[in-house]
Write a structure and sequence with these properties.
The chain is 40% helix and 20% strand. It has 18 helices and 16 strands. It has an 8-stranded parallel barrel with strand order 1-2-3-4-5-6-7-8, surrounded by 8 helices. A 3-stranded antiparallel β-sheet has the order 11-12-13. It has a 3-stranded antiparallel β-sheet with strand order 14-15-16. The protein is globular, with a radius of gyration of 25 Å. The structure holds 3-methyl-2-oxobutanoic acid (KIV) and zinc ion (ZN). The site of 3-methyl-2-oxobutanoic acid has 8 residues, from strand 5.
Length: 546
């Protein structure tokens, strides 16, 4: 039996590995919003979380399984260490999905075995086999990852893969956990696996990789040429440390250069059939959504989705593009969903026109969200004559953020200028329903606002990132503010959009503080993030008993 597909499977791990980026913590509703968009993007698999890690992760996997894992939708997957309790939690959370997958893993490199797991190779081999076998008792679709595969002894890796495939793994994933490999080495590793694992044709070969040396996408493309058929990636390349391979870069490389890659998947070079199932016109919107909800900005020169990715600055380039786009463009901006900044609505546009345009843009809002967004649209219409698609997108992305409104901004007022000391007054409604007002002087108006807010909220924190971006050109443009603050060793992000950047700054700060407040007032749970090494160490004593 040959299970190798003749196209590339896109496995999105934005909600699991991507969420492991510092400060990217998303709540359950935000994860659902992203999962729905990933389904519109038509990824094949959504790794929705790590069900055992915390009640919040469990709930997110379960809700995504229920609401996105429907007939015709993507496979919903949960990560699980090679431990019975993890696998049980994953299986339980995934129950509502029509198509579900358990992704279980254990390290195979000697450095991990010696210092982290404190297990022998023989022990790891039997745990891996036994836990794949156990996962198979819950579902047919089981993926196995030998963590730190790239730094593992290839002979041991082959053995682990052979045994886990024999135990029923339908996908074997080869992670470059520390982002260490180079394209030719990674390609050779995949070829070595194909040549030395006798039953490899019974499983799909997948790759997973981090971007510590900036090589993740290049490594994956080489892996495709060597026989990998599933790519594990994240939107905007977010993830642990330097991030994961970026989905949009992989998909567009396979799309733009399909004639080059076609023969490697057994197709005629000239075939126009897409190599992935992705609807590329959803890429830009997905990127913006993930950036807004995680608070992780996209650098302007980022390939495919950066603000400058389709901008031509030099006169020679502009001249060429005006004569024929192909002179300096290898892909069309519209292919990633970058519409021209169309001016579609104005102050007098009604609710129906608003709803219809949002639908055309791919936003399907519930009644409550629609009402809130419509109010914002009307407010914006009073300040701005012409409202573009990008403005609409900014309003909607702002409204669908699901940060609990614990502290709410009731008023913000600043006085500043070249002869004045920047002074701010704020009134906030507290989670207990009190209205509190305070004022402060700062080095600038935003600093003054943040100091005044801090006097009311009284939660120590350090602002570590502040950025304002304008959504469109023009004096009446909406400004989007993204901030990140630190409390202890945790980072929290906030995002807000408003034509008044002082108001947007205040709201973004309050969003982040509300996230922080929720964490402080939540009962303690196992965290899959900072304490990951602790749970890994703790867990393998359980695995030993499994
Ligand atoms: O980077 C890694 O090794 C992982 C595994 C859990 C697949 O994220
Ligand atoms: Zn990873």
């Amino acid at each position: 039996m040959n299970t190798q597909p003749d196209r590339i499977i896109i496995f999105d791990t934005t909600l699991r590995d991507g969420e492991q980026s510092p400060g990217a913590t998303l709540n359950v509703d935000e994860k659902l919003v992203i999962a729905r968009q990933l389904a519109r993007l038509r990824v094949d698999v959504i790794e929705a979380g790590f069900a055992f890690a915390s009640p919040g992760d469990f709930e997110a996997v379960q809700k995504i399984a229920q609401q996105v894992g429907v007939e015709g939708g993507p496979i919903i997957c949960s990560l699980a260490r090679a431990i019975r309790q993890d696998i049980q939690a994953a299986a339980e959370a995934l129950k509502p999905a029509v198509n579900a997958r358990i992704h279980t893993f254990i390290s195979t490199s000697d450095i991990h075995l010696e210092f982290q797991l404190r297990k022998s190779r023989a022990e790891v081999l039997s745990i891996a086999e036994e836990m794949v076998d156990y996962a198979k008792t819950f579902m047919e679709d089981v993926e196995f990852s030998p963590m730190d595969a790239v730094r593992s002894d290839p002979e041991f890796l082959y053995q682990v893969l052979e045994r886990t495939i024999a135990a029923g793994a339908t996908t074997v994933n080869i992670p470059d956990t520390v982002g260490y490999t180079t394209p030719s080495e990674f390609g050779a590793l995949i070829q070595g696996i194909r040549a030395n694992v006798p039953n490899i044709h019974q499983a799909v070969i997948s790759v997973h990789g981090h971007n510590d040396l900036g090589l993740a996408v290049a490594n994956f493309l080489e892996a495709v040429k060597s026989g990998a058929r599933q790519l594990e990636c994240t939107i905007n390349g977010i993830g642990e440390r330097a991030g994961n391979a970026a989905l949009e870069e992989l998909v567009m490389a396979l799309h733009v250069r399909r004639q080059y890659f076609n023969p490697y998947v057994g197709r005629a070079a000239e075939s126009e059939e897409p190599l992935t199932a992705i609807d590329t016109r959803q890429l830009y919107k997905t990127s913006r959504l993930v950036s807004n909800l995680t608070g992780i900005l996209v650098q302007p020169n980022k390939a495919i989705v950066g603000a400058n990715a389709f901008a031509h600055e030099s006169g020679i380039h502009q001249d060429g593009v005006l004569k024929n786009k192909l002179t300096y463009e290898i892909m069309d901006a519209q292919s990633i969903g970058l519409t021209d900044n169309q001016i579609v609505l104005g102050k007098h546009s009604g609710r129906n026109a608003f709803r219809t345009r949002l639908k055309e843009l791919g936003f399907d809002l519930g009644d409550q969200e629609l009402n809130r967004a419509f109010l914002r649209f009307k407010e914006l219409g009073d300040k701005k004559k012409e409202i573009s698609d990008w403005d609409l997108e900014a309003i909607v992305n702002d409204e669908i953020q699901q940060v609990p409104e614990l502290f709410r901004l009731e008023l913000v007022q600043v006085s500043c200028g070249d002869r004045a000391r920047p002074t701010a007054t704020v009134t906030l409604r507290t989670p207990e329903g009190q209205e509190l007002t305070d004022a402060a002087i700062g080095t600038g108006p935003v600093d003054a606002v943040y100091r005044a807010i801090n006097r009311v909220v009284e939660i120590p924190n350090e602002l570590i990132e502040f950025s304002v971006q304008s959504v469109t050109a023009g004096i009446d443009a909406i400004g989007e503010v993204t901030i990140r603050l630190r409390h202890g060793d945790r980072v929290f992000s906030g995002h807000a959009a408003n034509t008044d950047i002082i108001v947007a700054s205040a709201e973004a700060y309050i969003h982040a503080l509300n996230r922080l407040y929720t964490t402080l007032h939540r009962p303690t749970t196992i965290s899959a993030k900072p304490e990951q090494s602790a749970i890994v160490a703790e867990s393998y004593s359980i695995a030993g008993e499994a």
